[in-house]
């Protein structure tokens, strides 16, 4: 019996398993408008078998985009472009989610593969950034690993829960680029588990949970309710099928849609 492939229900919404595709910017939108790239990308991921597919950071205003290629939802035309994406994700048996975002001081940047830095002043593709803090992106505020910071975060999570939050995704913000992040497989899982236990909230988390065994372990051990599998999904959009086979679940091919599953099951190696 696999914990990773147990359904998860929250307020009447049931995910078919604990695997989530986290938001991943594609930098392929034009003036905020998503297009064929996003439709194919997200439908493919949903067909791959994840329970939840969350669309990339989607800006609430043009200035809230990270780059000129970021998705937006600041008018009806932009919002309507998500309708076929939502339909495809649902048709594939997954639940669609969206990350509503404002990039604040991270905004007006190049696409990562074109420089991964701010657009130069005077670049016609750039724009003046606005943020809740006057401190420029790149200045250290605090390290983030110490007990005091975590205790504050847990207290904040309790407050959000009291205001009606249902599930929290525990992640790292990269707002302090020089922070010493203790990279390791599933390194955030114990931190997320503390939030889960001490704030009494279901949690999701990501970062380096890229093998079926690790994903199974963090759910089985009560560290996470949902496992966000990001880059492993870019490498293999059918990652849940790989996980199902590795974990030995019954008839693993049926994690995928019938036009794939039937043949994979019939002509198994
Ligand atoms: C190409 C790419 C784009 C990403 N874009 C976003 C984003 O839009 N919003 C966000 O919160 N995180 C974003 N992330 C972070 C992922 O959601 C995820 O937390 C991270 O990749 C760690 O999970 P992984 O180790 O399974 O890849 C992005 C990651 C990648 C690789």
TrEMBL record:
Residues 4-110 form the NADH:flavin oxidoreductase/NADH oxidase N-terminal domain. Keywords: Flavoprotein, FMN, NADP, Oxidoreductase. One of its GO terms (molecular function) is NADPH dehydrogenase activity. Its cofactor is FMN. Pfam families: Oxidored_FMN. The keyword Glycosyltransferase does not apply. The lineage of its organism: Bacteria, Pseudomonadati, Pseudomonadota, Gammaproteobacteria, Chromatiales. This is NADH:flavin oxidoreductase. It comes from Candidatus Thiodictyon syntrophicum.
């Amino acid at each position: 019996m696999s914990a990773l492939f147990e359904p998860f229900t929250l307020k009447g919404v049931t995910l078919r398993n604990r695997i989530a595709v986290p938001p991943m910017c594609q930098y392929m939108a034009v003036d905020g408008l998503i297009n064929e790239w996003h439709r194919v990308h997200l439908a493919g991921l949903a067909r791959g078998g994840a329970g939840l597919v969350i669309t990339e950071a989607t800006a609430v205003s043009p200035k809230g985009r990270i780059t000129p290629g970021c998705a937006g939802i600041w008018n009806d035309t932009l919002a309507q472009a998500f309708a076929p994406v939502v339909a495809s994700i649902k048709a594939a048996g997954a639940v669609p989610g969206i990350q509503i975002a404002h990039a604040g001081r991270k905004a007006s940047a190049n696409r990562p593969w074109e420089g991964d830095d701010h657009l130069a002043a005077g670049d016609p593709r750039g724009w003046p950034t606005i943020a809740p803090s006057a401190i420029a992106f790149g200045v250290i505020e605090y390290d983030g690993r110490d007990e005091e910071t975590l205790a504050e975060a847990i207290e904040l999570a309790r407050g959000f829960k009291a205001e009606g939050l249902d599930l929290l995704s525990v992640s790292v913000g990269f707002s302090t680029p020089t922070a010493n992040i203790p990279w390791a497989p599933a390194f955030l899982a114990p931190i997320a588990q503390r939030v889960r236990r001490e704030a009494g909230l279901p949690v999701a988390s990501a970062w380096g949970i890229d093998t079926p065994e690790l994903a199974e372990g963090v759910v089985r051990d009560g560290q996470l309710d949902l496992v966000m599998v990001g880059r492993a999904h870019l490498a293999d959009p059918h990652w849940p099928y790989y996980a199902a086979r590795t974990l030995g679940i019954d008839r693993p091919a049926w994690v995928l849609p019938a036009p794939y599953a039937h043949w994979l099951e019939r002509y198994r190696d």
